[in-house]
What does this fold into?
Amino acid sequence: MKLGNAALRKVARAGAGRRRLQSLILALVTMGSVAAALLAGQLLAGSGSTFDQGFARQNGAHLTVQVDGSKVSAQQIAATRQARGVTALSGPYPTLLAEQVVTTSGFDVPSDLVLAPLTVVGRADPGGPVDDVSLVSGRWANAPGEIVLSNTVLDSARPGATLTFASSPGSPRLTVVGVADSVSATADAWVVPSEVTRLLPAAATPQQELLYRFAETATTAQMTANQAAITATLPSGAVLSAQTYLAVRQASTTGATEIIPPALATFGILGVVMSVIILAGTVGAAVGTGTRRIGIIKALGFTPGQVVRAYCMQALIPCAVGIVLGTSVGTAGATAVLAKAGGTIDGGGRSLTLWVEFAVPLGAAALIGLTALLVSLRAGRLGTIEALTSGRAPKTGRGRRTQRLLAATPLPRHLSLGLAGPFARPARTLALTASIAFGVLAVTLAVGVADSLNRATTDLTGASGASAVQVAPNGENPAPASQQQSDRVAAAIAADPGTAGSYGTANLQMPVSVASGGTNVIVYQGDSSWGHYPLVSGHWLSAGGQAVVPTQFLAATGTRLGDTVLLTYEGRHVPLTLVGEVFDTKQQGLIVMTESQSFSPAVPMGAFQIEVKSGTDVSAYVSRLTRAVESVGATVQASKGGTLAVVVILDAISALMTVLLVVVAGFGVLGAVILDTRERVHDLGVYKAVGMTPRQATGMVLASVGWLGVIAGAVGVPAGLLLHTVVMRLMGDAIGVTMPSQVLSVYDSPELALLVVGGVAIALIGALGPAGWAGRLRTATALRTE
It folds into this structure.
């Protein structure tokens, strides 16, 4: 007689209810793995998509070129339209780099705030075949005295605000009439073309901006060839600077949130793998210890196929709950992270990727279902008579040879019995060891990622240790410090006996020959060898005329160490040779670092970083230095350090996922040892009848898993070290940087030893409950158990 589906569902629900601990384990691990996989999938799907979509929509400029208007004619510019690979050209647009632009009114910032130099472009309208500028608010400038600001200049920019161009003749005041977005970052502001001439300093010639699109643009090599084709068609020296869209894309996608997906995806994969291991072990144990139940339901009329379905459903019930909860948690987390990860292109956060919302839970369900099916097939193959007559104990002979070998050693008998126990169930032992190893691997990975991120995101240019002090020569005044203030502060620092070392820094915006607009330039004064960014290749600054740049700068501009770039400082070209490549995650990689000796006149320092001598009272040092520099308005404070928000977020995610995986591993140990102990309960009664004490019984159970913890630690720690290197390199690839050795090599010997011991801890803690139960079990009760 074949029973119906209603009876089948009843059997499955009853089986899941009888094994509540295993059901809880499956639900927890499934929830964690699905949540992590979904969050990682959404972040991976969202990385870079905002820029690409906006670039296509606005016909973004593949190449932005600034030319000297006095060296090139309109005919020569038009001829570049015929250069190899060019598909569209916009311009020329008159442009200038406006310095000393001051906020006047209408901004949510202090009045008279001096902005970084603005690239101002004269355009009659926002449209065109290249760089179709999108208005975010207001309208386009159509008369002198009006200006449209890029939405990247100030968050508080809005129509009606005013700016004063202090370096222009007559210090004209312009009214903001609109806020716009250029996906190509071709300008910081736009005015009518005639306005550029009015804003130019006396006797200056306006530059011309040319915007190009090309047929082949996928690689740096192709863009380098495209740029060379344009340069070759123009007179020598006419090209002042050029920037490819790859540099803009780099800046757009090099956000802190880009480092999260590789780590999160790894933890998600670990969770999925562990869920498969726990699922296989749990279903296998249910089949192995429930053979009599299988015989009964077969005797009642269930077919082999129905038995397989019943055990699959028994496993899938808690997993389905875990999938639903994990999808909810993962979606909520992805929504929160993506809301903060959106770029400026669409004026908002990134949206969820719909196919990921379906693919992850459906994939998890398919993987869990396949695992349950493969393990449950054994239940379908069991014959009815065989199932009804078989016991729960392992087959005769399993582990006996190991028991005899260990009995010949000097080990106490209860320990030798415990050590030999796992050999009776080799498949279960392998699954148990694997789950502990994955727990150790997760801890090893989380510790390494946290240490690496802390090293990677520590701004070494701003000393952050307990014995570090920072000085701002101009106090809290946003205006740049004067040379006199800078010199007075430097002299006071050098004169204090508690100073071990110091250097000054100045942050400026300057045009660079390999990029359009202003580029962030950090100028160092003094010996900065003790506080520079981690080096990837080359060497740190040692003389004037040298420059060090991050990996992203080299990739985006197509330059390499040994090349020369030109800065423009107060109307003079400053040639710098690239001598070093550094690791940087904070400045989006598009920065240039150089020595103060490169410039004339001198650059005033905006801040000083000080290393205080060992044993010096930092508070007393700060008070003493404050009195020495207060006459020039400088402020002194001990460095506070700090951690990037993204590091805090990733550390928290890693910690939570690690705790979850370790807890799941502990539950796996607990479930496996409970099954094993209950299977051997009659043997326990015999052992106690011949003299085994409760303490020895407890020790026997703990010994059966303790050595598995040693093996798991020995396997999990090296695997974690290898996975840490892989994950950190993937993080580097995500933000376009090369991870230096000091960021990758973060483990020390004592730490590794503790991680190995962690495997033993997971095993023993998970087994404590069943071991205590074995010790408390009465001899008569155990002997009566079938």
